[in-house]
Design a protein that fits this description.
1 helix; seven-stranded mixed β-sheet; about 130 residues; mainly beta; globular
């Protein structure tokens, strides 16, 4: 499995961006997929996770109501729509995939928010929000 994140860039406060994560490999529709971010000097932060069908999602409080995760299983692609961006959203954004989280999505409430649980990671895409 390989993941390729894209779509980052420079945006003003209040603006929007859509990130994409292209999945290469078999059975994308079996993986739980997540977005994390890491700001300079900070730990990697969980943002959101989506189940294999796309019918169930979960968000961190910091992005709830502003960010929306989705996936297109026909295109093997994960998305993150980010609206009302703030300077504190500036970070490198990573997509991640894990088969077990996909399989046991509903029962892995804490583990699916833990970066250490994910087997596959994209290279990251930088989002910079100017004030």
């Amino acid at each position: 499995v390989q993941l390729q994140a894209s779509g980052g860039g420079l945006v003003q406060t209040g603006g929007s961006l859509r990130l994409s994560c292209a999945f290469s490999g078999r059975l994308f529709n079996g993986y739980g997929m997540a977005w994390f971010r890491q700001a300079p000097g900070k730990q990697r932060e969980f943002l959101t996770v989506i189940n294999p069908s796309g019918g169930s999602t979960f968000y961190a409080d910091s992005v709830k109501g502003r960010f929306t995760v989705s996936r297109d299983n026909s295109k093997n692609t994960l998305y993150l729509q980010m609206n009302n961006l703030k300077p504190e959203d500036t970070a490198v954004y990573y997509c991640a995939a894990d088969w077990e989280i996909g399989r046991y999505f509903s029962s892995l409430y804490n583990r699916r928010q833990d970066a250490a649980e994910y087997d596959y990671w994209g290279q990251g895409t930088l989002v910079t929000v100017s004030s």
